[in-house]
Each structure stands twice: as C-alpha cells, then as structure tokens.
Amino acid sequence: MRATVSNLENNHVKLVVELDDAEMSDAIDKAAQTLSKQVSVKGFRKGKVPKNVLIAHIGGADVLRSEAIRESMPDFYARAIADTAVDPIAEPEITVTGGEVEGPLVFEADVEVRPEVTISGHRALRVTLPSPQVTDTEVETQIDRFRETDATLNDVDRPIVTGDLVTMDVTATQVAGEAEPLEMSDYMYTVGSGAITEGVDELILGLRAGENLTVNGSVQGGGVVTYAMKLKQVKERVLPELTDEWVAENTEWQTVAEMRDQLVDQMRRRKVMEAQFAQRDAVLVALGELVAEDAAPEALVASETNERLHDLGHRLAEQKLSLEMFLQVTNQTPDALLESLRADAARAVRIDLALRALVRAEGLEPSDEEIDEELVKTAEAMSVEPDVLRTNLRDTGRTVAFTAEVAKMKASRWLTENVTYVDPEGLVIDPALLSVDQSLEMDV
Fold first, then answer.
1. How is residue 429 annotated by DSSP?
2. What does the alpha-carbon distance between residue 96 and residue 77 come to, in Å, rounded to a whole number?
3. What angle do helix axes 399-418 and 334-362 make, rounded to 10 degrees?
4. φ, ψ for residue 208 (rounded to 5)?
5. Mutual orientation of helices 399-418 and 61-84 as an angle, nearest 10°?
C-alpha cells in the first residue's frame, strides 16, 4: 500500500491510496471465502464452493472484485490512516479512481481532521479551588453543633432572630389550582433553615409570637403556593457552657483544647481533600477556556454529545429507568437535556484541543518508550497481550489516537504541576498541600 496526504480547506485532507495486485488478490480471496459461506450452490456445501464456481454463480469476476473492494475498504482506509498518521474526526468521503475492474486499486478519501489550535497564557493560569484553610468561625460552628445536642429551649418574648425555633400553624394554598390546602399545626421551624420556601427566613426576622406572615413560593413544575403562617411561640436554644467537664462527659475528647485541636485537624484534612477533588476538573476547565468556542468542530461536538447521550441511556437502563422518567424526576424537557449535554460536550472538546495544543507548546510529545509503557499498562487492564493490542490499534487506525491520549496525560500532569492555585479570596494555595494524601490519616 502507498498512501499520500495533502491538505484541503476547512480542516480537511485528501488521502490518495494505491494497493498493489498482491493486496487486491488477498482481498478478492477473502471476499470469495465470505461469499462461499453465504450463497447456496447446488452440489456444494456452504463454505466449500470452489472459487471458479462461485464466480460463475454470482455473475463473473467483476462482481467478486466489486464485493472485495466494498468489503475490504474499511480495512484499506484504516491502514492508510495509520500509515499517514492522519487524525480523522468524521466519516470519510471515499471515491475509487482506478482499478475497479483490473489493475492496482486506487481510491481517494476526503476526510475532516482534528484542527490544531494554539493557546497562550497557560503558564499564567490561576485556578480557583475551595479554600483548604480552616477559619476560627468554622471551628466554633462545629463545636456549637456538639453543644446543640445538649441545649435547652427557653421561651422568649422578643423579636425573632436567626436560630430561633418558632412554633406555627401553616396553611399552604396553591394559586389557581384545584388541590386542597395543606394544613400543619404546631409546626416547629428553625429560622435560617430554609425549610419552608425562599423568603421566609428574611421576612420572619423581627416578628414576634402572635403575628402572622404570608409568603408566596414556587414549587416544582412552575406552580405558585401561598404559605400563611400564624406564629404562636418563639424559643431560643441555650447552649451549655463549654468546659472540660462537659466535653469529657458528652464527647469523645477529654478537654476543650483537645476537642478544638482534633476538630481543626479533621476539618483541615477534609477541606484539603475537597480542594484535591476539585483540582483536576478545575485545571482542565481553566485550560479549555483558552480555546475559543468557535474552534470546536461541529463533528466533534456532535459525536461527543451522542456519546454522552448513549452513556446516559446505558446508566438509566442499569437503574431500570426510562428517559421519560428521568426527565420527569429532573424537571427537564428533552430539548433542555440535549442542550445541557451539548454544552458539556463542547467544553470537553475545547479541553481536548487545549491539551493537544499544550503538548506542542511545551514539547510534551511522548517517547516511544513512554508510549510502549502505557500500552503495556492498558493491555494488562484489558487482559490482553501487548502485541495483540498493538496490532489491533494499527489495524483499526487508532494508533494516532492512542499516542495522543498518552501525550494528553503528560500535558495534564504538566499543567497540574505548573499552574497557580488560589482560593475564592484570591490567596495562593501551597501546591505541596494538594499533593499529600489526606485519606491515609483520617476516618472517612
């Protein structure tokens, strides 16, 4: 096989492929074997029809050659892709230009390829992560949660403040609806919990027992419900004094100092883990934003969207859920779901293009040794021999894709090690903190 490639417009290339007589002869023999298993010829068992008899039965050598070209074209194209290192992103338009009847087979393939974009600013990226630092307020809030388990409730005759427990009668009436009003008597509501509907926590502040409050709130499906609340009683939590004696009696620790130190350590580790969990996605999203939205080819976005839709269907089937049930539960329309999947797909395509650009910008192309090492790991994970995987990648034209994945892994590691991490306040996070495995030293 001889294959050449030339560039066309709009990220298309043209492959010109020529096969010699020996390759075409092998393809014809293969097609003959396949056809002999399919056709019925009197006096012969399927699969045992001689080639000359088969040719006569199907209408001549031209018919067999045509079938051989049709059957073998995917393999011919895959080999040409592998030989020329072309990276196609869509199905090719193939035209046979010679050898349909006799002589060397020649065909052309017009195919859209992955564009090569350039990026700038990747060395100056600042990636925002959840803060790994524990504040005094967070520690005191956690300690108060322990104290609340032993709190007492005292009646108060003052304006309501956040944290109070208000006993109320509640009537919920749907606006312009047929449903009967829902009534709850002596419902105890914690101010600040947001348990009734949006707006209650802000409007109830400053009111007193004996007053009324009416709030309109939305419900799933776009309806509106009016909540009428009669405030009957207000109580405040009185927390126990924080002493060593109380700590020893009510917690796993013996002193206030020990309790505070242990909570700080546990909270710090959890916050570091939260930052670590967010790290990879945040880094990739930040890199992907260096690529313009219109740089993502429609062919790639559509393919990625379809793949995500297929994966969703597979996961729903495993849970014995239909797509209609999923849409109902998540309160989505089919168009809204598709648009969401498409947005995620477009983001993934931009990240892919950005990683490939980073490989070129920083000279991160993998060596043959690195590619082979990753191939061996992949083969082991698939429980196949490395040579089998290597051959399969070549025969299916996926060698370039595999090499690109190895390169992108290198780029991702480089990026993780070279960007600047900051918390939501803009303070720089020590990257060494993000490299420590916190789960080894804590109970989760």
1. P
2. 12
3. 80
4. -130, 165
5. 20
Amino acid letter, residue 55: I
Identity of residue 324: E
Distance CA 311, CA 348 (A): 15
Closest to 370 measured CA to CA, from 362, 378, 380: 378
How much is the pTM?
0.75
Q: 93 near 110, Cβ under 8 Å?
A: yes
Written as six digits, the tokens of 163 are: 């944290």
**Token pair of 177, please?**
């609806």
Report the alpha-carbon distance of residue 42 to residue 139 in Å, rounded: 88
Superfamily of domain 2-112: Trigger factor ribosome-binding domain (3.30.70.1050)
Reported as half-sphere exposure (CB side, CA atoms, 13 A), residue 376 has a value of 6
So what CATH class is 256-441?
mainly alpha
The angle, 0 to 180 degrees and rounded to 10, between the axes of the packed helices 51-58 and 21-36 is 80
pLDDT tens-place string over residues 132-172: 999 999 999 999 999 999 999 999 999 999 999 999 999 99
pLDDT-based confidence at residue 442 (cuts at 50, 70, 90): very low
And the tokens for 244? 């060593």
Helices (H), 87-175: 136-148
Q: At CA 124, angle to CA 118 and CA 130, rounded to 5?
A: 115
Residue intervals of the chain classified under CATH 3.10.50.30 are 152-238
Residues with Cβ within 8 Å of residue 274, at least 6 apart in sequence: 130, 132
Tokens representing residue 107 in the block: 């065909």
Question: CATH 3.30.70.1050: which residues of the chain?
Answer: 2-112
Q: What is the pLDDT of residues 66-95, one digit of tens each?
A: 999 999 999 999 999 989 989 999 999 999
State the Rg of the chain over Cα: 34
Place of tokens 């020529």: 18
What pLDDT sits at residue 440? 53
Cα–Cα distance, 348 to 297 (Å, whole number): 12
Pick the CATH number of 152-238 from 2.40.50.100, 3.10.50.30, 3.40.50.11540, 2.60.40.1120: 3.10.50.30
Could you please report the per-residue DSSP string of 309-362?
Answer: HHHHHHHHHHTT--HHHHHHHTT--HHHHHHHHHHHHHHHHHHHHHHHHHHHHH
Q: Number of helices (H) and strands (E), helices first, in the chain?
A: 14, 11
Model confidence pLDDT, tens digit, residues 34-61? 888 888 888 788 778 888 888 888 888 8
